[in-house]
Description:
Elements: H1 5-13, H2 17-39, H3 42-58, H4 70-95, H5 113-132, H6 135-146, H7 151-158, H8 162-190
Amino acid sequence: MSDSDSELLRRCRAGDQAAWGELVARHTRRVFGLAYRFVGRVDEAEDLTQETFVKVYQNLDRYRESDGAFPTWLMTVARNQAIDHYRRRKDERQRRAEEPDGMDSLSSPDEGPLRRLEREERVQLVRRGLRTLPVDLREPLILCDLQGLPYEDAAAILQVPLGTVKSRINRGRLELAKRLMRRRAELAGGAR
């Protein structure tokens, strides 16, 4: 007969590593399932599961049965870890905004090879155009237009006022359009 979670927790707090191992084995599947639903990748879900149990172990003394059942508390910790992981990943993606990769997802599953090639050429043309923009115009365009962030979030990330973000996006769009039109004219002139 196996011990209850309460008994295992009592033994864990007393330093019984076997009790901790049993507690982890008992609840790993549920924690992994939640983590996997959040991240959608086995390797990340495994890491998140491990992070959750480390957090739980570090905070065993904070759990009180009067707060609710242990599995409920454990899943709350797991959910919070998953949310923190999501936020870290989001911050990481925003920091990588220097290279505009968001355009790759603009394809349609039913487009033919010719259309796909034309789209890829346009994407490369826009990427080159973006790279030639000054950083202060390029960053808000990438954050808002390619990554879909609200202007307020871009202002917080860039640490500039909201009005500045809006004006830089406007100026950036105009400047990018001019550069793309010039490039288009160059290509059309060279095709003659």
